[in-house]
Each structure stands twice: as C-alpha cells, then as structure tokens.
Amino acid sequence: METENGTVVTEFILIGLTQSHAIQLLVFVLSLIFYIIILPGNVFIIITIMSDHGLSAPLYFFLGNLAFLDASYSFIVTPRMLVDIFSEKKVISYKDCITQLFFLHFFGGGEFLLLVVMAFDRYIAICRPLHYSTVMSPRACSVMLLAPWLGGFVHSIIQVVLILRLPFCGPNHVDNFFCDVPQVIKLACTDTFAVELLMIFNSGLLTLVCFLGLLTSYAVILCHVHRSASEGKNKAISTCTTHVIIIFLMFGPAIFIYTRPFTALSVDKVVSFFHTVIFPLLNPVIYTLRNQEVKTSMKRLFIQKIVC
C-alpha cells in the first residue's frame, strides 16, 4: 500500500546481528548482564548526584546528564534486540524504524555535544580557575546544557527529513539488528549519492571535527596540568584521562560508521553492537570508578537508604 510520501514499503525486516545460534545466545547473555547490572548502576549514579548536595559542582551536574543520556540511548536498541534474538522474523514498521533512527541520533548527538561542554568545563576549571565560579555559574551551566539537547535535535531531524524524502519500494531487509542511516538509505529506490554526501557531512564530518577538537583541548589541558605544581594535579589528570577514554569509546565507532561511504563491511555489526549496546552503559561507570567523590557518595547513600 502506497503512502502519501510515495513510500511503498510499510515495514522492514531486520536481518539481525548474526545467524549463528551460539553467538546469538552469547550476545543475549552479555547484553542482558550489562542491562540488568550496569543500567541500574547508571540510574544510581543519577540519584546519587541529585541527592548529595556535596556533588553540586558543574562537573557532577554534567556527569548526571551524561548518565541520563547514556541510559536513554541504551533503551533505543537493546530491549528490542533482546526480544528479536529469539524471533524468527524480526519485523519493524516503517514508522517505528524512523522513530528509532531519530532517537538514536538525538541522544547520540546530544551526548557528543555534552562531552564538548564537559571539556570546556575542565578547561575553565584547570586553566582559568580564578574565573571558574563566574563562567560556570548555575545559570551558565543550564544554558550550556541546552546546547546538547538542541544540537542533538537539529542533527537528528536533518537525518530524518532526508530519509523521509526517499522512496522505498523494496527490498526491505535491513542488514543490521536496528535501523540506522547507512543501512536504511541503501534500500531507497533512487540514486542516494547526494543524500549520502549530506549524511556524511552531517554525521561523519561533524563527529570527526568534534573528536579532533576534544583531543586537542584535552592535550592543552594535560600540558597545563603537567607544568603546574598544584595540589590537585593528580585529580585533574585522572579526570581528564577518564574523559579521553570516554571520547575514544563514543567517537571511535561513530567515526568508523559515518565518515566513509555507506558500503557494508564485515565488522560493521560488531562495531554497531559495541557502539549502541555496550559502550553507552560503560561510560558513566568508567567515570565513577575513577572519581573518588562520587564513589564515596554512592557508598554513603547505599548504606543510608538500602542497608539501614
């Protein structure tokens, strides 16, 4: 049945991560472990930061929002993937596919921009400490937080609008376990070269620029810290190192997926699995394990609210 925008296809069939039942079982167990154990951990991080007034610094404010974005991002793909593993026919409607794609890039783009905001926060705190309270005031932090949400929305809506203008008349098999731009575009019944260039510019080039900019900014910060003789030198190095690890985890797979022509490679699904299922849940945990204040506050909250 043909819709108003000329789309004939009303549903897509997800091929999935793999056809091997043994690997599917391994993926299911691994994903479920991460979802059951680490996702509540991320929620606990958010509750800890919200409830502990000692964690009122902008750094922890942004960390709480990072945990929220990561938790929201993990809800987009993982639950459906866990159900689809045991389904013979993995069907997703056209509207659900577009919705999944929108929120995937909305939260993903928002997180990338939030990492830029966090890098700016660390730069001011370490390189301009006398101006920190003025520049990173509560009002300024709230305004800065709007940038990731607004930027993520603009980034995602551009992707969706470009795809909605494409006609889909078959085939309808998406070569992945979720709907994403590279796989969906290839199913369009028209020449998509121009659209692919726009997508690469929108996702790939901006991701690469942000990645290189973040690495440069943290290199400047670490050089400044190395030359200084302040008491908080080790803490600053630990915090910046953690941010750099998270940057590589989030930007590395995104650069691999979106900065090249949308041709299928054998490792695409593996990279997508870690990018959408594993890494988002790990990011706040990695940060927490390297932050003594958050760990201490979480232990105190756990003893007060649960043990006692």
From TrEMBL:
<keyword id="KW-0675">Receptor</keyword>
<feature type="transmembrane region" description="Helical">
    <location>
        <begin position="98"/>
        <end position="120"/>
    </location>
</feature>
<keyword id="KW-0812">Transmembrane</keyword>
<keyword id="KW-0807">Transducer</keyword>
<feature type="transmembrane region" description="Helical">
    <location>
        <begin position="59"/>
        <end position="78"/>
    </location>
</feature>
<dbReference type="InterPro" id="IPR017452">
    <property type="entry name" value="GPCR_Rhodpsn_7TM"/>
</dbReference>
<dbReference type="InterPro" id="IPR000276">
    <property type="entry name" value="GPCR_Rhodpsn"/>
</dbReference>
<feature type="transmembrane region" description="Helical">
    <location>
        <begin position="270"/>
        <end position="289"/>
    </location>
</feature>
<keyword id="KW-0716">Sensory transduction</keyword>
<keyword id="KW-0297">G-protein coupled receptor</keyword>
<dbReference type="GO" id="GO:0004984">
    <property type="term" value="F:olfactory receptor activity"/>
</dbReference>
<dbReference type="GO" id="GO:0004930">
    <property type="term" value="F:G protein-coupled receptor activity"/>
</dbReference>
<protein>
    <recommendedName>
        <fullName>Olfactory receptor</fullName>
    </recommendedName>
</protein>
<keyword id="KW-1003">Cell membrane</keyword>
<dbReference type="Pfam" id="PF13853">
    <property type="entry name" value="7tm_4"/>
</dbReference>
<comment type="similarity">
    <text>Belongs to the G-protein coupled receptor 1 family.</text>
</comment>
<feature type="transmembrane region" description="Helical">
    <location>
        <begin position="237"/>
        <end position="258"/>
    </location>
</feature>
<dbReference type="InterPro" id="IPR000725">
    <property type="entry name" value="Olfact_rcpt"/>
</dbReference>
<feature type="domain" description="G-protein coupled receptors family 1 profile">
    <location>
        <begin position="41"/>
        <end position="287"/>
    </location>
</feature>
<dbReference type="InterPro" id="IPR050427">
    <property type="entry name" value="Olfactory_Receptors"/>
</dbReference>
<dbReference type="GO" id="GO:0005886">
    <property type="term" value="C:plasma membrane"/>
</dbReference>
<keyword id="KW-1133">Transmembrane helix</keyword>
<feature type="transmembrane region" description="Helical">
    <location>
        <begin position="205"/>
        <end position="225"/>
    </location>
</feature>
<keyword id="KW-0472">Membrane</keyword>
<keyword id="KW-0552">Olfaction</keyword>
<feature type="transmembrane region" description="Helical">
    <location>
        <begin position="141"/>
        <end position="164"/>
    </location>
</feature>
<feature type="transmembrane region" description="Helical">
    <location>
        <begin position="22"/>
        <end position="47"/>
    </location>
</feature>
